[in-house]
Amino acid sequence: MDGPLNVVVVMMDDLAWGDLACHGNQVVRTPRLDGLRRESTRLTRYSSGPLCTPARASLMTGRYHQRTRAIDTFCGRSMLDPGEVTVGEMLRSAGYRTGGFGKWHLGDAYPMRACDLGFEETLMHRSGGIGSVGDHRENYWREGEAYFDPVLQRDGRPERRSGYCTDIFTDAAIDFITRHHQAPFFVYLATNAPHTPLEVPERWVSHYRGAGVNETHARLYGMVENIDWNVGRVLDHLAALGLAGRTLVLYTSDHGPCPSARDFTAPADRQQRFNAGLRGEKGSLYQGAVQVPCFWRWPGVVPAGVDIDRLASPIDVLPTLAAATGATAPLDRVIDGVDLLPLLTGAVAPADWPDRNIFMQWHRGDAPTRYRNYAVITQRYKLHRPEPGPGRRAEEVADELYDLTVDPGERDDLAAAHPDLVAALRAEYERWFDDVGATRPDNYAPPRIHVGSEAEDPTTLSRQDWRVDPSMADLGEVALWRTADLQATWEVWVEREGPYRVEVRLEPFSWAAPKLFTDVVFRADGRSWRTPWAPMCTLFVLPEVELAAGPATVEAWAEGPSGRQAALYVDIGRAPAGAPVVGKP
Q1: DSSP letters along 13-65, please?
Q2: Which superfamily is assigned to 6-342 in CATH?
């Protein structure tokens, strides 16, 4: 290899194992990804997920997401502890130029943004998706078209870009490679596609409609084909610059298919999109939800066209990249992942690779609950206790055991036939659960968003990170975001004492009722500031709010005859004080 190794990690959002033609899908067209698979070593037992933030936290840190505070996708639980060391920080310390493009979903505000945690250049959307309530407000108010011409965060500052989101992120990655091709670089290209909403240029959809595919899947597969084209552009650019031979490319996804990306008009047996017979969807721990593509291409070092069936997980990415690049993985903390390089290169045969267990758990809420939606995956077996469902406790649901070597679709539950194995694996899980939960004294407390920092001014608080009664989390993201009459707060850290300008943005209301509210209120640790509510307005400004330095709990709402309406966004900044203002949308 002539020169230092470059690294490109491409991570999809909600792309399932069966969304690629090379995995048996007879509808979708993915020639470039099929070609990348042929040129790669494939980890066929790679288990990611089970949701967006957990998978990304594990990939970035080499640690189970339960150690990182980033344990869920909203309610302040999708923020990575700023004390974690990311792949970006590790490689930047080793002399790499680092760029992140697309979806972060590990914190929208300082000090948890990608630009705060090792990425010197970023172009990313906020929150879990473009157009979601935590994203930039202009995207949120453009429902149905937010994937086009979106407002993105360029190095933490809003910037409108023209075009389609996946094309924009790929353009930025290619530009970064062009400018830094003479130095070792790390590119993290994490598309928000094919995540819902299924917005995609018509040029990618028409073929599937013409082939008789229903509208939902025509749009879905159009998004996948657009991804295929964009990944091809990156590979072609590496080749044109003569970098293909010294660039490690990892292609993967965060988890399997989203339940909302179904065709609900079709018969029940045709609602689920093709996933090669695997069971389960995003949020569950069945293989259909966690088994995703994992292709490693490094010409001349990692063999092409090889399948490896040894267990792997996102926690393995950081230690493997450390070994491949010569970077130093963090030495002051537990790294749960293992270096896969000997396995990928063939230095160690799969048959000689040590057995291991992979642990998984996820559910809504402020902290994991013992036994609730957990799994232990061994090289042969999988012990899984699924989500208990409404009105049931985790203890009331039975463990399930599957032999994945002969039953990858998880149809034949063997738990009753192997009680000793179930007990042994459950004990392994219990040890793991206790260990990750003891990572720090307040392990499951969410990080605090900083306000008053020179790194970000103003700081935008959104419903993505508001804190509510933990029992409300089971409503799910969209339902909770739209339940605006509840009491919701944000946990912040005020870096400097003094006056702050607070802008409270409310959702548009029905203008037919002239007296919906009387006041707009901002509260910080028991002290309140008010400004009169006015019809036809969504922006209300309180220019001189005195905040003390240190931890604070803040909230903002409109109140009046119609009850209470929580704020949609709150901007807190140290802008110069002025006269009270009531603004327009």
Answers
A1: SS--GGGSGGGT-SS---HHHHHHHHTSEEEEEEB--SSHHHHHHHHHHSS-G
A2: Alkaline Phosphatase, subunit A (3.40.720.10)
The ranges of the chain with pLDDT < 50 are 268-269, 510-512, 577-585
Count CB neighbours of 485 within 10 A. 11
Does this model's pTM top 0.90? My answer is yes
Residue that the structure tokens 């490109």 belong to: 8
CATH 3.30.1120.10 positions along the chain are 358-437
Q: Where in the chain is the domain with CATH 2.60.120?
A: 449-583
In tens, the pLDDT along 176-230 reads 999 999 999 999 999 999 999 999 999 999 999 988 899 999 999 999 999 999 9
Query: Tell me, which fold does domain 358-437 have in CATH?
Result: Arylsulfatase, C-terminal domain (3.30.1120)
Q: Per the structure block, which two tokens stand in for 100?
A: 């992140």
What is the DSSP pairing of strand 294-297 with strand 306-312? Answer: unpaired
Q: Which two tokens stand for residue 347?
A: 């230095």
Contact 388, 440 (CB under 8 A): no
Q: How would CATH label the architecture of 449-583? A: Sandwich (2.60)
CA proximity to 481, closest of 507, 463, 504: 463
